[in-house]
Write a structure and sequence with these properties.
Length: 64
């Protein structure tokens, strides 16, 4: 039946994603960072174009 094909494709994608997760866990979570490291990275002013040099997001940002 044609309806079975998309289901099989989705099941194969899910199995591949789960296998990749298991490989990542078995390798000791390479590339993983702590919550504190992640928050520092995404909240740093050099990474956030909406935040200006003075740290006030309401101040217009000039990308000169």
């Amino acid at each position: 039946m044609i309806m079975d094909r998309p289901i099989a494709t989705e099941e194969a994608k899910a199995a591949a994603a789960f296998a990749a997760l298991e490989d990542w866990e078995a390798a000791g979570h390479p590339g993983a960072v702590s919550h504190e490291e992640f928050m520092a990275e995404i909240l740093s002013t050099d990474k956030c174009p909406a935040t200006t040099e003075d740290g006030d997001p309401s101040t217009p940002n000039t990308f000169a």
